[in-house]
Amino acid sequence: MSTSPLPKELPIEFPTQSPEIDPQLVERFNELIEMIRNAKMPPLEEILRYLATIHPVYAGALVVIGFVYLIYGLRFTKPLMILNAAVAGAVAGGVGTIYFQYAQHWWIGMLVGAVVVGVLAWPLMTLFVSLAGGAAGAAVGYAVFSNVVVAMERTDLMAYSWAGAVGGAVLLAIAGFLLFRAAVVILTVVQGAAMMMVGVFSLLFLDEEVRDVISKNVMERPLLLLMCIGGLCMVGLAIQYFTGVTKQKTVKAAA
Question: Which helix (H) or strand (E) holds 89?
Fold first, then answer.
């Protein structure tokens, strides 16, 4: 059997220049970065109006899930952190598909984002807790700075709210690496308290008279909402701390 000889030069062409990036993709990415930079906390009136639109079923779910985060955050660290990662991935995937003009496939983006980020969160738990802590710290720092400025009637300082966000993000991000358990407790307590307050306020707003009274008091005292969340945080911190101490004593006694 005879075989044809191989050609001396294979007809393969290698690219001499790197492929050009789509200018529209670059423009949209720059728009996304600019939108993040210009993000501002909505006025208190809009927040209260939004709370009144939440369905009672969703509000009840927020109360129950928030209670789990608030009280059992340290006990169920991995499941709760993976759930956070999956939700964050789903939101990022859905927003990404819509933003890049694939709105008809938004559910695919959410599904892929949830699965990918959720799976990655398992082996990279410390890194994710640090990133999640940084995001939570940024939100809390921004909210505290903004509400304090409004309470002090120094709205001219609102332009520096980013300083509170950066400070909170750096503090909790570093805590996530150095003090893993403490960062988990703080993250779950803050998240659980915020979820519970959103759900409780939404359920209370079902009654128009109660809604008017609460809205009036919150508008007259801008720090009232933060004080309610802070009070729940103190309760959650105390319960998780004493639960952890009791568990450690039980383990030592059994050993």
Answer: helix 77-99
